[in-house]
Structures are given as C-alpha cells and as structure tokens.
Amino acid sequence: MNPDNIKALKENIALRIVGKDDLIENVITALLAGGHILLEDVPGVGKTTLAKALAASLNCSFARIQFTPDTLPGDVVGMSIYNAKTGEFEIVKGAVAHQIILADEINRSSPKTQSSLLEAMEEHQITIDNHTFPLPEPFMVIATENPIDSIGTYALPESELDRFMMKLSVGYPSEKGTLEMADRFLSGQLQEEIHPVLTAEEVIEMQKEAAAVSVHEELIKYIAEIISETRRGDEVRYGASPRATLVLIRASQARAYVRGRDYVIPEDIRDMAQAVLSHRLVLTAEAKMARQTGSDVVRHILNRVKVPGIR
How far apart are CA 249 and CA 262, in angstroms? Predict the structure, then answer.
C-alpha cells in the first residue's frame, strides 16, 4: 500500500475539478475496485472534465465515444470491413478497445447501442463476428448522462445500470469553489496540461491490494442484510441484484484501501451504499408518484439496519 500514489492521483484530478474532494475519492475508489462509473447531472458541471482528468492522470490508453442518436453498435465495439485489395473481411476494433473509456452522453443513443457495452463492461472482452478479443487492463468505463427528462434522451436499461459500480453526481460547486475555479481560469491554471502520475501496472497492482483488504464476517452479514432489505419494501418493485452484493463488498474494500486501511469498517460500507445501490433499485409507480428515489430508499434502509459494533 502506497498512500503517496493515492494522494498524487487525488491532487492531479483536483487540478481540474475544484472543491469536489468526496467525488474524486469515489472515482478513485471505483477505479481501484475495478468498477465502472455513471455520472448523471445537468450539462456544464464538469462530468466530461472529471473523466478526462482521471484518464490524463493515468498512463493508460484512452478513447472518447460521443454517443448520439445515430451512433451504431459497430462504432462502439467494432465491425468487419471488406478489404477490396485482399478480397477478405478484416476486423476493425471499435473505440471500446482501450483501457479508459469516456462514454459521453450515453443516454442520447438508442438502447441497442447502449447495450453494446454490456459484454465489455462485465467480461472485459468484445465479440465481433464470432471472434472474441480480450480488452486491455485496467479497463474502466466512465459514462456521462444528462437527466432522463432532458430532450432527446433514452433511459438506460436496468441490465446496463446494474453493470455500473457507482452512479455519482457532480453537482454545482459552492460559492467558494466557484471563486477558486474562476481564479484558476483567469490565471490559466485550468488550461495547464495534466501529466500521468500512475502507470497501468501500478493501477493493476493497487487493484490487487485493494481486493485483499480484510472484511470481517459480521460485515458480510451486514451487507447481506442491507441487500435483503432492498427487496422487502413496498416502494420497491425490484431490489438489488446478487451482483450488487459483490460490488458493495469490493467497493467497501477499495474505500478502506483509499483511506489507508487493510480492513473494512462499517463506515466504509455506509459510505458506499448510496452510490452502489441507489441506481439498481426499480421503484413502484406509487413510489415514483410520491417522488421517492432510490437514494431515499437506501437512506431509510441504512437508518433501520443495525450497524455491527466492529472497529
């Protein structure tokens, strides 16, 4: 465990994202947990900037896919193209065949195109005309989307939402953060180039160390009880999936690692529960009409499930 690496990564991303330390920590946690991130917020708050800042901080290959209504699955994954010179079809890999992927405004493309990312996100591989190719490691998708009630957007299918480890919101900066951002903009600091502070090999090694963080048996039971509670409420049509259980464990391990510990405590689980579980819940029509959200449900669950006395 090298806390200097995590500190350097935080400071590098903070060169572009001002006053959002908790958000940056969540993004780093997802990276070290081997997960993907969905950033949902109104235009102009820095979703794309955050994704690009993370990519620029890592010595990894990077590709940006700008999703539009006419984006096709082949644009994302790849396709076979006929070569007139050789008389044969050649496989050309799409933009997803990189390590860090920015899927910009993902909900502006059709559900068919959105679903083209499913295999890559879950299995870290792509299939083109019955040929399967592994993706380079570390592999991470950072998708941005505008709120689903915006013009020209499509809701992401539940199967894809479940593959994002966390759903995060950038949010508006505070007044202090706005002033600092303005000062950096006028002085040219926001335009300064960001240099990589970690190599792909270092990220992979940190991911292995995070996965080795100890989780007490009582904390596993605590997570299982939280997951079970998401399936019992009258306001929930579909609760958290079995995948959500494993993802919450892994995210809690990575959160402990980011904070310099080799063991998980209840606060790690509680810190990660909102980001990991909220977007996986499908609420009933009655709950939606009452303006309840997945975050509300998770918050109520955390308030009523007994916290283990483990430190």
Answer: 14
- Model pLDDT, residue 148: 60
Q: What is the DSSP string of 133-156?
A: EEPPSS-EEEEEE--TTSTT--PP
Please name the residue ranges forming H helices in 230-304: 242-258, 266-277, 285-289, 294-304
Burial class (CB in 10 A: 0-12, 13-18, 19+), 36: buried
If we measure between CA atoms, which residue out of 156, 103, 161, 143 comes closest to residue 279?
161
**CB-based contact 76:37 (threshold 8 Å):** no
Alpha carbons within 13 angstroms on the beta-carbon side of residue 19 total 14
pLDDT tens, 70-102?
888 888 999 888 888 888 888 889 889 999 999
Rg of the chain (C-alpha set): 20
- The two three-digit tokens of residue 179, written as one number: 């002033």
Separation between Cα atoms, residue 141 and residue 134, nearest integer Å: 15
Question: Any bridge partners for residue 59, and if so which?
Answer: 199
d(CA 128, CA 310): 49
DSSP strand pairing (78-83 vs 282-283) = unpaired
pLDDT above 70 as % of the chain: 97
Q: Are 12 and 28 in contact (CB under 8 A)?
A: no
Report DSSP state, residue 278: G
Q: For the CA atoms of 16, 51, 53, 269, what is the dihedral angle to 10 degrees?
A: 80
CA distance 142 to 105: 10
- pLDDT tens track for 212-259: 999 999 999 999 999 999 998 788 889 999 999 999 999 999 999 999
What is the b/e burial string over 101-140, where b = at least 16 CB atoms within 10 angstroms of the residue's CB?
bbbbbbbbbbeebbbbbebbbeeeebebeeeeeebeebbb
